[in-house]
Structures are given as structure tokens and as C-alpha cells.
Amino acid sequence: MPAHDRTRPDGGERLARRRAALAACLVGLALSLLAACKGSGAHDAPGAGKDQQLVVFAAASLRESFERLAEELKKGRPAAEISFNFAGSQELRTQLEHGAAADIFASADRRHIEALRAAGKVEAPVVFARNEPVVIVAKGSSPAIRTLADLPGAARIVLGAPEVPIGGYSLQILDKASRQLGADFRAKVEARVVSRELNVRQVLTKVSLGEADAGIVYRTDAATAQDRVDIVPIPAEVNVLAEYPIAVVASAPHPELASAWVDLVTSPAGQEILARSGFSGAGAGRPGAPE
Asked: In whole angstroms, what is the distance from residue 102 CA to residue 55 CA?
């Protein structure tokens, strides 16, 4: 046999080498997967990745102030991602009752959040702000509405639906006003109502676009459209104060960040941001009124 044939590996040796090469590849693959797992684990650590995502359900009237609060939160948590669902409190309550995923619920009244609390859907709420209803009138509307007593003279009035916080507050105001302005005051106003909206921003939009002559909204909402509507204050003796409670959702996917949001909203810095939008604090009187 030629010398070079004696140096060629037989079948057993070739099989052994192939097995060794395969084993080396498997070890390398395992190490790569281990490194990848360690890398992905870093994103799941507290303070990073998915733990920095926050979903806030909030009454429509909180839009501007909560967007400012989000900027404030991100100063200390730059990786935080905050998503908002702004709508009527009754709509948000229904969504949470049907299993919508959220971390925070901020309502424009106690009724809807207390119903969720009784059902075990949210933790104990805390009132963090108050707001004052006002009458708004489309600029240039005729006849002129200068006081609450003039409201029945409006040709078209839009109010919140009774189940909507601003709608409920509006009916309370009309009932109280009827004791001073005549037993039929509420009936006169309601005879001019052309629509009842599902959140306060829809009331504001109808009046600011001239689709209605007057409506009742919160002072903070009216302030966002001062170039399109005039504000008519409601006398303190017949007005009501809207209370805004906030709570962490019981099944919150991100409870730590949710608690941080509540802490911010109730902190002096958070209260200052709310005050700039026209809200008063939980323990204060009417917005703009002397302490």
C-alpha cells in the first residue's frame, strides 16, 4: 500500500472528528444563547423596558394638566413611556369593568371610581383636585347671556349627559338655581337643550364651533378656548365643586410606576402644575377664590 494511503484516517476516525466538530458547534451555540438571554434580562429589570410603561385612564378635562405631569415624571424617569386614554369618566369605568388594561384611573367625580372600588377594580382612591363649573357662551351669540339667570334665553343649549360627571353637576346646579330663580328654571333651561354629550370636551366643542349658543363646562376647559367662548360665572350659592379622585387599578401591569404617578399628582410639584391649569387642590376652596 502506498505510504500516503497509510496516513489517511479510516471511517471511525472521520466519524469521531465530525462528532467533535458538532459538539464544538453546539457548545458555541449554547454560549451565544446564554449571552442573549442575559442581555434580554437586562431589559426586564426594574426601572427599564416594560416596567417603565404606564397606562393612564383619565377624565377628558385632565388632558392638558396630565400631559404636563407626564413631562414632569419623565424628568426623573427618562425611560418612562406614558400612554393616556382621555374620555368621559363613565366611559372609562365601563372599559375597566370589561377588563381593559390600565394602571391608573382618574375620574371627574366620586360616583364612578367608588363603583369600581366596590367591585374590587381599583385600590382606595384619593381626591387630588377640584374644579368649578361655569357657563360658556359662543362669542357673538345672540341674545346675550351675561348671567346664569339669562341661560333660558339661549336658543340652543348643550349639556353633558346625566351619567357624565359634568352632566350630573349641571343638573345639581339647575336644581339649586330653581330654588332662587323660580321653580321652573330647570325646565326652562332643559327645554332649550339640543344635545347631551358624553364628555365635557364635546360640550366645549359644540359651543366653540357655534353649534350651540351656551353650555356648562369646567372652568379649566373653558380656559382652553377663551378665543372662541365667553365665560359666565355661576354664583357660588348655587354652584357645586367637582372633585377628582385618582386610584391605582387593582390589576395594574405596572404598579410601581402607577404609585409613582399618584405620588407626583398629589405632591407640591404636581399640585402646582394642576393649579396652572385652573384646578384647586383637594383641600382648597373654589379655584381662584381666597384660601
From this structure: 5
Nearest to 131 by CA among 223, 57, 31, 204: 223
Q: Which three cell numbers stand for residue 75?
A: 424628568
pLDDT recorded at residue 285:
45
Residue 108 φ/ψ, nearest 5 degrees: -95, 5
Grid cell, residue 36, equals 442573549
The H or E element containing residue 113 is helix 110-118
| Count of all residues that appear for the chain in the document | 291
Question: Distance between CA atoms of 93 and 88, rounded to whole angstroms?
Answer: 9
Cell of 125: 382612591
Q: 25-43 b/e with 16+ CB inside 10 Å = b?
A: eeeeeeeeeeeeeeeeeee
The DSSP bridge partners found for residue 197 are: 160
% of the chain beyond a pLDDT of 90: 76
| Low pLDDT (below 50) residues in the chain | 1-48, 284-291
Whether residue 175 contacts residue 183, with contact meaning beta carbons closer than 8 Å, is answered with: no
* N-to-C CA span, the chain: 111
Query: Which of these, 233, 236, 220, 228, lies nearest to 280 by C-alpha position?
Result: 220
Locate all alpha helices (DSSP H) within 182-249, ordered by sequence: 185-190, 200-208, 219-223
What is the distance, to the nearest Å, from the Cα of residue 257 to the centroid of all Cα atoms in its chain? 15
Spatial contact of 165 and 55, defined as CB atoms under 8 Å apart: no
Q: Strand, helix or coil at 6?
A: helix
The pLDDT of residue 50 is: 59
- Cell readout for 10 is 479510516
Answer whether 174's CB lies under 8 Å from 189's CB. yes
DSSP SS3 for 185:
helix
- Whole-structure pTM value: 0.79
